[in-house]
């Protein structure tokens, strides 16, 4: 519902379905989803809590729904943002114009651990650094979307987006006859075409693409194997590849086979023991030399992490203005930089109202949600901030939107975010929607699966008003929907 208590138009048919379907039937569907996910093996791994590290990712059977108009607006903002982030990476590893212009502090970039000097003066094949980006969005109670953070290194979760849709198709086929829902199943094809589009010039008409994984003990190994299978390409580990004469080859039973594009899911530090960590057994010796010789493409480019550093994040709107000459379509969440004295004093005085994050943290770790923290926890973070202020940023606790979620007690509101996936090769490609992550714990703002979060299917509903005219029947009902004030049609949460 919107702030006036009126059901949002994209949810109208879903509301009728939920009214007509008892909780017992929905609970049964939830149990069926668990069996389905367990049978398929849709899991993630947590290695810090003991016991069996493999966990079944919680899945909520009530989808999140966006209208096509909402998605189109988001899509424009996402493309704009990813183009600016790529321009920033090309600039800071090249002429550094944005630094020379004083629009971003030099030390914030050049002394950042995410900045790789090995990439200076080098342009990746195709000129693209962030081939696959995951942009985390949150919606506030005021119906505005904000970018919470950018993921430009190895964004994960797209396999859950695809499996969630497959599960909903199996569990609720009748709902798909009542809605025109934009498909997402073509993502693997779009990903493969994007990866092929960045292949080196000498790759030929059909570039050889592989997915490079750290192996089955990685928390996202399910996704690595899933995407390789869906794209119809080889899933390889570091030992399966070797470099000869600055060319990358894959070991096969038929002999060495040249590799043109590597979708790597290994962190920079472990990618090549000759260029980074000498003790890495996960990478490929000589890979960076082959890369810099222009003989293989890597997605994403090493060093892309400087663009998604949380201390760099506040400057992304300025990147949009500087590189594209446009005003940002999507806004950032207001952010306080603890390395700045004025910001730090504000944060320390308002820890009970703010969310504090590690500038280089991820997965919901190293974070303080001030309003839900104890005095002891806030005191601990205050000491950490004073000791290493440059390691922390802080943001206000926004009035995050909630969506209906099936809980033990019935339907309940739970906070969500949205991670659309943006593919950038010769063109920018997106499938409508993304991964909706939901904080299943009552009152929690942490949506990460490793921190008790789950996922939902995300629907972008096509031709909503025409569909409602057919579904409801009668001009009066259709007119009622189409004359809802604009504020009531701008969101779904």
TrEMBL record:
SUPFAM superfamilies membership? Glutathione synthetase ATP-binding domain-like
PANTHER family xref list: BLR5612 PROTEIN (PTHR34595), SLL1039 PROTEIN (PTHR34595:SF7)
What name does this protein carry? Circularly permuted ATP-grasp type 2 domain-containing protein
Upper lineage? Bacteria, Pseudomonadati, Pseudomonadota, Alphaproteobacteria, Acetobacterales
A family per Pfam: CP_ATPgrasp_2
Circularly permuted ATP-grasp type domain segment(s): 63-439
């Amino acid at each position: 519902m919107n702030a006036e208590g009126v059901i949002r138009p994209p949810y109208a048919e879903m509301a009728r379905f939920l009214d007509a379907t008892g909780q017992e039937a929905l609970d049964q569907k939830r149990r069926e989803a668990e069996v389905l996910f367990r049978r398929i093996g849709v899991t993630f791994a947590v290695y810090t809590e003991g016991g069996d590290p493999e966990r079944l990712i919680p899945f909520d059977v009530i989808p999140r729904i966006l209208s096509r108009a909402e998605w189109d607006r988001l899509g424009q903002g996402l493309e704009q943002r990813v183009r600016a982030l790529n321009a920033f990476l090309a600039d800071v590893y090249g002429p550094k114009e944005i630094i020379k212009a004083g629009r971003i502090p030099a030390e914030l970039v050049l002394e950042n651990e995410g900045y790789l000097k090995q990439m200076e003066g080098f342009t990746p094949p195709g000129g693209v650094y962030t081939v696959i980006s995951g942009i985390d969005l949150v919606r506030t109670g005021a119906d505005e979307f904000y970018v919470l953070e950018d993921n430009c290194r190895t964004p994960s979760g797209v396999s859950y987006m695809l499996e969630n849709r497959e599960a909903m198709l199996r569990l609720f086929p009748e709902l798909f006859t009542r809605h025109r829902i934009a498909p997402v199943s073509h993502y693997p094809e779009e990903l493969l075409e994007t990866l092929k589009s960045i292949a080196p010039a000498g790759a030929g008409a059909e570039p050889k693409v592989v997915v490079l994984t750290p192996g089955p003990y990685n928390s996202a190994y399910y996704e690595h194997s899933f995407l390789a299978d869906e794209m119809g390409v080889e899933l390889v580990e570091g030992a399966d590849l070797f470099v000869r004469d600055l060319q990358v080859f894959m070991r096969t039973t038929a002999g060495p086979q040249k590799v043109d594009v590597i979708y790597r899911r290994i962190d920079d530090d472990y990618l090549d023991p000759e260029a980074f960590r000498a003790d890495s057994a996960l990478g490929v010796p000589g890979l960076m030399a082959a890369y810099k010789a222009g003989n293989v493409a890597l997605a994403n480019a090493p060093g892309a992490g400087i663009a998604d550093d949380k201390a760099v994040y506040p400057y992304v709107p300025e990147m949009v203005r500087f590189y594209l000459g446009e005003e940002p379509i999507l806004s950032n969440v207001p952010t306080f930089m603890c390395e700045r004295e004025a910001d730090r004093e504000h944060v320390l005085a308002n820890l009970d109202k703010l969310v504090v994050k590690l500038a280089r943290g991820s997965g919901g770790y190293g974070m303080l949600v001030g309003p839900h923290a104890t005095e002891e926890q806030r005191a601990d973070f205050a000491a950490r901030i004073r000791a290493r202020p440059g390691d922390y940023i802080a943001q206000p606790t926004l009035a995050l939107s909630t969506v209906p979620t099936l809980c033990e007690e019935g339907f309940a509101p739970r906070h969500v975010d949205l991670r659309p996936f943006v593919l950038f090769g010769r063109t920018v490609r997106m499938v409508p929607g993304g991964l909706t992550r939901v904080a299943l714990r009552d009152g929690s703002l942490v949506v990460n699966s490793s921190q008790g979060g789950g996922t939902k299917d995300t629907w972008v509903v096509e031709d909503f008003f025409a569909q409602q005219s057919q579904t409801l029947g009668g001009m009066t009902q259709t007119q009622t929907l189409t004359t809802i004030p604009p504020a009531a049609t701008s969101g779904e949460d």
